[in-house]
Design brief:
about 425 residues, mainly alpha, Growth Hormone, Chain: A, 2 domains, globular
Length: about 425
């Protein structure tokens, strides 16, 4: 990771993303808390998360727009636009204004897809292929670290001073990201216009995912895994309440433990990609989630801590493996559509499973559901592991300077023979 951070252009991008990811981490939970405070309804608060996820349906269109523009100016414009779209939140005062939060949450979800799609292309443009796993690993480590403090900080700031300061801080983060990336000196050409009509262009990302064997296997395996992983968002509350006999606030402690595991996974993810390949790293991440879920079916605190650490390690491994695979196996002119389509394929099932988990936990024993999640994710991980040879490991090549052989002084001093005419 130190190698990629030595690059001045990536360091600038890293600072920008640190600011925008900090804004993102404090904002999302705080919006749901704000709705809960204004309405007193858990259902309406949960609908805030759905409003953020719903724009995933527009991912093909977003990717098509991203691929028609240069990456750096588009990234700057998208961050400026995100800061502007938060402005209506200053007008929220009571329950009658909740609709404003929902609208902003939906627009923010659209912005999130856009920034993710353009970021994938920008990293590909700035970083050589052999350092892509390191770049993605650095960013995932920071993201996991912010998960430890960001949501709690956002909720605490809202409780202390209200939503206006939170909105101002989030806007500052996105504006900072735009300003820093504006300093990047990147040589980009305007993408060539495709000869295809726009409906065909919209589906090009999905066609590429389906046509590449490694990407197809990755999306099928991880899509199945994420479909089951989403159940745990609701099951964890039943685990704490019914299994451990503790207050719901104890979930925050377990989330912190998972965040520690995420930091560890982020630090080692690039090394796993180099040793096992992108599909191998993705398989390891999904496979780690299986025994973690199975352990949560047996409610013991020490076992739960181990399980949450393992689940935390799982997430950055899967994301670094998948993002690096997409960046290395996708033509630059198609990367926005492929990244956006992959985000929709993965996040869409997970969003459905979060809602389904909330319903199923009221009907079935949570331990049975955790066991189902564990078995299914283990099977998905084994399916991915079977395709690990579709991507080859990339060992780090260490340059060892070879000392030059010293020349004999007499040879140097001898006059050169002239060629015979």
């Amino acid at each position: 990771m130190r190698t990629v951070l030595r690059r001045p252009d990536f360091r600038l991008l890293f600072v920008a993303l640190l600011a925008s990811m900090a804004a993102e981490s404090i904002l999302l939970l705080a919006l749901a808390v704000w709705v809960k405070d204004l309405t007193g309804s858990d259902g309406m608060a949960g609908a805030t998360i759905f409003a953020v996820i719903a724009p995933m349906a527009l991912a093909p269109l977003v990717g098509w727009v991203v691929d028609r523009c240069r990456r750096r100016p588009f990234f700057v414009a998208a961050n400026l636009g995100t800061a502007v779209l938060l402005c209506p939140l200053f007008a929220v005062h009571d329950r009658a204004d909740v609709w404003v939060i929902y609208v902003v949450a939906g627009l923010y979800g659209l912005s999130y897809i856009t920034l993710s799609a353009v970021l994938s292309g920008l990293i590909r443009h700035l970083v050589p292929s052999e350092l892509l796993a390191d770049a993605n690993g650095v960013l995932q480590t920071v993201r996991q670290g912010l998960r430890l403090v960001g949501p709690l900080a956002g909720a605490g700031l809202y409780a202390a001073v209200g939503g206006w300061l939170l909105v101002a801080l989030a806007m500052t983060g996105f504006l900072t990201a735009a300003a820093v990336v504006g300093l990047l000196r990147v040589t980009e050409t305007t993408p060539a216009r495709s000869a295809r009509r726009w409906p065909a262009g919209l589906g090009a990302g999905l066609r590429h995912l389906a046509g590449d064997p490694a990407l197809r296997r990755a999306l099928l395996g991880y899509g199945l895994g994420s479909l089951m992983m989403g159940f745990t968002e609701s099951l964890i509350f039943a685990y704490v309440d019914l299994g451990l006999g503790r207050d719901a606030a104890f979930v925050g402690v377990l989330v912190t433990v998972q965040g520690v595991g995420g930091l560890v996974g982020g630090l080692f993810s690039a090394a796993v990609v180099r040793r096992a390949g992108e599909v191998g790293a993705l398989a390891a991440g999904v496979s780690f989630f299986g025994p973690a879920a199975l352990a949560l079916a047996y409610p013991r605190l020490w076992l739960g801590v181990v399980a949450l650490l393992l689940a935390g390690v799982s997430l950055p491994l899967t994301m670094v493996g998948l993002n690096t695979l997409i960046q290395r196996r996708t033509p630059p002119g198609l990367l926005g559509r492929v990244a956006a389509a992959a985000e929709a394929v993965v996040s869409g099932p997970q969003a459905v499973s979060i809602g389904a988990g909330a319903l199923l936990v009221g009907v079935f024993d949570y331990r049975l559901l955790f066991a189902l999640v564990g078995v299914t994710t283990t099977a998905a991980g084994l399916y991915l592991w079977g395709g690990r040879r579709l991507t080859t490991p990339r060992p780090v090549l260490v340059h060892v300077p070879v000392p030059r052989r010293p020349l004999d002084r007499e040879v140097l001093a001898a006059p050169r023979r002239r060629r015979a005419p």
